[in-house]
Amino acid sequence: MATNSERQSSASSAATFLTSSACPPPCAPQGPSDRCTLQDAAKYFSEHTNESYGAFLNLLIDAIHSRKLPSFRPGKSLRNRFDELGFLSENVSIIRPESDEVYLSDLNDWLDESEPRLTWRFPHSAGATETLVSKPLQRQLFQEAEILRVITALGHNPTQLPKPKAGKAGVKAEVRGHLKFPTSVFDKAWDRLRASKSIQDAA
Question: Which of 16-30, 77-91, 130-144, 153-167 is predicted most confidently?
């Protein structure tokens, strides 16, 4: 049984934790592979859209405070709890964008409900987090795969692209319209596919 001294020490430590405004050093996510940190989500979203990283991160934080988007401590299954005023309760302190995590499917549900005009959505298949925190080369492969996917979905053969008709947009412009990559990101990915001959014009 704990002594009075031990109980007082434990209570003091808990009070310090609950009132501290200092965030711990960033740590790698320890949760399931289909969730990521708020910072990674905002970074990934901004890389694939024309939206600002900071603006989207603030949207995420607002959604969590208003209880529209569940968030989790690293490696935890119980979501962070908030009261009606948007304050964290129980044994958690403040939102930590560098380590607090969200499920990718929850992000998409929140976007569908609260931000429907933001049309890009997060991949949430097995191992999707590896894509979210990937190295530049892995991001490039994802961009190229998306372009090839859309070309095929539009009914074209990537190695036999038809030449644009006079006065009409070509396949490249059509594909660009279906993907929300920033212009420079899309153009570079298209050029890489051209260079590797993954994209070719019909003879």
Answer: 153-167
